[in-house]
């Protein structure tokens, strides 16, 4: 009886979580523009998205470029930071680093966004820049809030690896650098990959921090959609976000199925 009640409760929670996404996907196939009246099934908004999307194309390209670049840089820096934290011998210093790593994730996005904006404006005034906020400030902001998530994905994998792997590789003639890239890095690659995927996803849909740290010459898709709220939103936006949702869902299913197969093999 308790198990049945628990399953019903969990089912209700998941239903409420995914209901807005389901509504978005359904109305992306709506014949009309209404989000409350379904006038008929049609794929015209998907056709318009790929044939007449000059207003959406630039924000989409900007968002993908920013997300990939920020995720790559954050993954490199975050992996290096995780390795450093792992090999730190002082427990006090290690706990301090872990605490500092957790602070950006505990901060509300608006606090992070406003503080970064003030920092960029202050530095811009010092160097005499005409535009204190631009693409590079936006990139730095995205790298900043992505690094802690990469660290928290890589550190558990480092803790699961044999601490003597690197020493064994060095005993066989490898340098410390070669031992890391040939032995340690492949053993933690799943954590590095998951950190990259999380950084890419967070950068892809960030709005609050981007709103405060970007200039007028670079607009991401969340900012573009926000500006559209002032006027009627075109249903092709529903189609675009439905495609993004289905792609993310496919990646998650593939990752979970692959992980389950690896566990069965082991």
Keywords:
globular; 266 residues; mainly alpha
Commentary on this structure:
This protein has 266 residues and is mainly alpha-helical. It folds into 2 domains: 1-42 and 235-266, no CATH class; 57-234, MetI-like (MetI-like fold, Orthogonal Bundle), CATH 1.10.3720.10. Helix content is 78%, strand content 0%. The protein is built from 12 helices and no strands. The chain has helices at residues 2-27, 44-51, 54-87, 91-106, 109-127, 135-160, 165-171, 176-187, 189-204, 208-213, 221-228, 236-265. Helix 2 (44-51) crosses helix 12 (236-265). The protein is globular, with a radius of gyration of 23 Å. The mean pLDDT is 83.
What distance separates the N and C termini? 35 Å
Total separate domains: 2
Number of helices: 12
Q: Residue ranges: pLDDT <50 for 5 or more in a row?
A: none
What kind of sheet is the major sheet?
none
CATH architecture of the largest domain: Orthogonal Bundle
Structural class: mainly alpha
């Amino acid at each position: 009886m308790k198990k049945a009640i628990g399953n019903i409760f969990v089912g209700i929670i998941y239903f409420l979580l995914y209901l807005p996404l389901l509504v978005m996907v359904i109305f992306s196939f709506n014949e009309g523009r209404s989000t409350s009246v379904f006038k008929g099934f049609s794929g015209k908004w998907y056709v318009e998205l790929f044939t007449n999307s000059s207003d959406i194309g630039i924000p989409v390209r900007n968002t993908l470029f920013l997300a990939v670049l920020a995720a790559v840089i954050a993954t490199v820096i975050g992996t290096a930071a995780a390795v450093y934290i792992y090999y730190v011998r002082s427990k006090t210093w290690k706990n301090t680093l872990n605490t500092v790593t957790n602070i950006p994730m505990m901060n509300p996005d608006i606090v992070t966004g406003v503080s970064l904006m003030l920092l960029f404006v202050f530095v811009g005034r010092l160097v005499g820049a005409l535009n204190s906020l631009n693409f590079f400030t936006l990139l730095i902001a995205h790298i900043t809030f992505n690094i802690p998530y990469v660290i928290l994905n890589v550190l558990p994998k480092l803790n699961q690896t044999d601490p003597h792997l690197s020493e064994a590789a060095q005993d066989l003639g490898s340098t410390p650098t070669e031992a890391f890239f040939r032995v340690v890095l492949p053993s933690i690659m799943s954590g590095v990959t998951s950190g990259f995927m999380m950084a890419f996803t967070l950068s892809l849909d960030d709005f609050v921090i981007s709103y405060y740290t970007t200039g007028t010459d670079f607009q991401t898709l969340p900012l573009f959609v926000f500006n559209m709220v002032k006027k009627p939103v075109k249903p092709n936006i529903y189609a675009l976000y439905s495609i993004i949702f289905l792609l993310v869902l496919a990646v998650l299913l593939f990752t979970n199925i692959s992980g389950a197969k690896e566990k069965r093999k082991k």
